């Protein structure tokens, strides 16, 4: 069962890799354009959008690096679980970057409220429109992968924030062009920073759940334990652990106490089927014990 799952994960990575390369080229190119235009136009909102694009670029690059490392790691005999956790670490790094950019933009925006500088609205508007188109293309490339990989999901959320950010910059540029109200620039910059913070927090929470080996939120552990106990021949379930190795790859281990007359192989097969069919857990390590066996694992604190 484990080998089939690994092959599926590697195929998933290969499928996403081509789209990630295209998204990386788009976001990296637009980021450079936005930085130059933001400096020339003196637009903090545009520089804020460029900052988000920079985290997109780095985040997508880390996603690509993680996928390549995962695919190559299986050749190393000491990496029995591969390097699947690299994508989780990359997602956590993305979270920290997003928080950092949002905090810096907010601080600079507050400073600008005291004496808002003039902003060249026309180049700000043109570059924002180009950025919006590029972000929409990247969003379409990453959409399907975001449902399967926490790492790709991190890049997807960043690009989603940039789509709304580009719209915000367009609105701010139009306001400045029509009213010369310079406050529109720092206000929009702060709005973009505040928008991305909850999404960054959610991504970080998901990454930490995996790193701390917390049971997946969608799996009810008492129900899972009860489902194993209900199997014919099973008298007790103990030392049960369920965790996520990486996105979409749940893993479980448990000890099953069985009646003296029960067929151990049959119990194992039915237990694996229940975990797979009812809880989508394809990789499970199950130990069968006689009902009167003394459980040394009962004394373990974890």
UniProtKB/TrEMBL annotation:
Membrane-spanning intervals of the chain: 20-40, 52-70, 82-107, 119-142, 154-176, 182-201
UniProt record similarity statement: Belongs to the cation diffusion facilitator (CDF) transporter (TC 2.A.4) family. SLC30A subfamily.
Compartments where located: Membrane
Keyword Translocase: no
Superkingdom, natural source: Bacteria
Entry protein name: Cobalt-zinc-cadmium efflux system protein
Species of the source: Stackebrandtia endophytica
Cation efflux protein transmembrane domain ranges (all copies): 20-212
Boundaries of every Cation efflux protein cytoplasmic domain copy: 221-290
Alphabetical UniProt keywords: Ion transport, Membrane, Transmembrane, Transmembrane helix, Transport
Membrane topology of the entry: Multi-pass membrane protein
A GO MF label: zinc ion transmembrane transporter activity
InterPro entries linked: Cation_efflux, Cation_efflux_CTD, Cation_efflux_CTD_sf, Cation_efflux_TM, Cation_efflux_TMD_sf, CDF/SLC30A
Signal peptide range in chain numbering: none
GO CC, any one term: plasma membrane
């Amino acid at each position: 069962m484990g080998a089939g799952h690994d092959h599926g994960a590697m195929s998933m990575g290969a499928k996403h890799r081509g789209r990630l390369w295209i998204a990386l080229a788009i976001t990296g190119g637009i980021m450079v354009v936005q930085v130059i235009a933001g400096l020339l136009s003196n637009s903090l909102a545009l520089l804020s959008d460029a900052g988000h694009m920079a985290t997109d670029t780095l985040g997508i690059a880390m996603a690509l690096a993680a996928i390549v490392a995962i695919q190559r790691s299986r050749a190393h005999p000491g990496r029995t679980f591969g390097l699947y956790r690299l994508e989780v670490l990359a997602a956590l790094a993305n979270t920290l970057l997003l928080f950092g950019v949002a905090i810096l933009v907010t601080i600079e925006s507050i400073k600008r409220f005291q004496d808002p500088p003039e902003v060249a609205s026309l180049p700000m508007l043109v570059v924002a429109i180009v950025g919006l188109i590029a972000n929409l293309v990247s969003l379409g490339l990453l959409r399907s992968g975001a449902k399967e990989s926490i790492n790709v999901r991190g890049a997807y959320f960043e690009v989603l924030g940039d789509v709304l950010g580009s719209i915000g910059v367009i609105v701010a540029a139009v306001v400045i062009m029509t009213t010369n109200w310079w406050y529109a620039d720092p206000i929009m910059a702060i709005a973009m920073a505040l928008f991305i913070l909850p999404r960054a927090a959610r991504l970080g929470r998901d990454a930490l759940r995996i790193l701390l080996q917390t049971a997946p939120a969608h799996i009810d552990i008492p129900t899972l334990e009860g489902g194993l106990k209900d199997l014919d021949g099973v008298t007790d379930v103990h030392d049960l652990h369920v965790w996520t190795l990486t996105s979409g790859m749940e893993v479980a281990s448990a000890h099953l106490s069985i009646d003296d007359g029960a067929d151990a192989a049959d119990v194992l097969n039915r237990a694996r089927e229940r975990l797979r069919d009812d809880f989508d857990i394809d990789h499970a390590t199950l130990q069968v014990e006689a009902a009167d066996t003394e459980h040394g694992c009962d004394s373990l604190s974890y």
